[in-house]
Amino acid sequence: MSVQPVRLFGDPVLRTPAAAVTTFDAELRKLVADLTDTMHDEGGAGLAAPQIGVGLRVFTYDVDGAAGHMVNPTWTATDAEEQLGMEGCLSIPELGWECLRKLNVVAAGWDMHGEPITVEGTARLARAIQHETDHLDGVLFVDRLDAATRKIAMAEIRAASWFGEQEPVVKVSPHPMFGKSR
Fold first, then answer.
1. 132 catalytic residue (yes or no)
2. What's the pTM?
3. Domain boundaries defined on the chain
4. List 27, 42, 98, 132, catalytic entry
5. Which cofactor is essential here (predicted)?
């Protein structure tokens, strides 16, 4: 298991919807370990596979004592309550803005062994589940900001010292996930 470089805003892999995992094997377990190691090394609350250049529907999270991973996740809001709060992203380092999210969600998916799992999240965990699932759909949290905040965010991103430093990777790295369907 190893820490991987995090792809930064502007890399096309972050805007490419990820493919469903179809094989639950040692490669998937290594991916989950790499995501976990990288998330902890970067000090993040979550990390999705596209953020390390792997176009598969997998993310890890570690929020307020709740830690784990989800494969092929979906989520639904349990009520209409919303939360406005600061949000950041390892792919948009050192920046954050107020983002509106659902307050309470339930996520369903599978673990790295192909067993079904359900995660109930409120507040920060709900925010992390929504944020990481967005990554799997090629959506960044700046897309969820209101128009005025998004305009400010884009200006701050373009002015960031890291912006444009990373060589974009045009192709999503392939991963041998074929076979057992979920």
1. yes
2. 0.89
3. 12-159
4. 132
5. Fe(2+)
